[in-house]
What we know:
By secondary structure, this protein is mainly alpha-helical. The chain has one domain (2-144). Helix content is 84%, strand content 4%. The protein has 2 helices and 2 strands; from the N terminus they run H-H-E-E. The protein has helices at residues 2-94, 96-153; strands at residues 162-165, 171-174. Strands 1-2 form a two-stranded antiparallel sheet. A hairpin with a 5-residue loop joins strand 1 and strand 2. The longest helix has 93 residues, at 2-94. The chain is rod-shaped and about 90 Å long. 2% of the residues are buried.
Amino acid sequence: MLFDLENCMSFKLATIFGALLIVSTTSAFAQSEETKARVKAQIEAAAGAKRATASAANKQDSKQVARDKSVVDAKADAAKGKVDKASAAMGWIYGPEHAGAKGEQLKQQVNSIADEQKAKIAADAARRAAQRNAAAEKQVQNLVDSAKGLKSQIPAKKGEFGLQPGSSSLHVRTYGTAK
C-alpha cells in the first residue's frame, strides 16, 4: 500500500513538474515573442518617424517652392510692365507697330527666362526631396541592420560570446559564462 502511495506521489510530482516545465517554457516562448513584437514595433515606429520627418521637410520645401515661383512671376510681371512703358515711349520714334512688336518679343523673352527659373526651382526641390527620402530610407535600413546585428550577437546558449540582456533596452557584452 505504501509502495502504491509513493508511486502515486511521484507520479503526481512528475506531472506537476512537467506541467510547470511546459508552462515555464511556454511563458519564456511567449516572453520572447512579446519581446520580438515589441522590438519590431519600436523599429517600425522609428522608421515611420524618419519617413515622416522627410515628408514634413518635403512639404515645407513645396511651400517654399510656391513662394519662390510667385516671386519669379512678380519680377516677370514688373519687367513686362517696364517693357510696356518703354515700347509706348518708343512708339513715337519707331512707330507704334514696330515698338509694339519689339515689346512683345521682349515680353516673350522675359516669360521664357521666368519659366526657366521656375523649372530650375522645381527641379532643385525635386532633387532635395529625393535626397531626403533616400537619406530617410538609408537611416531606416541602418536601423534594421543594427537591430539584426544586435540580435545575431545575443548568444543562444550560456557561455557563448555576445550580448546578454541587461534590461529592456540595454545589452552588455559578455565574454564567457553569464553571471
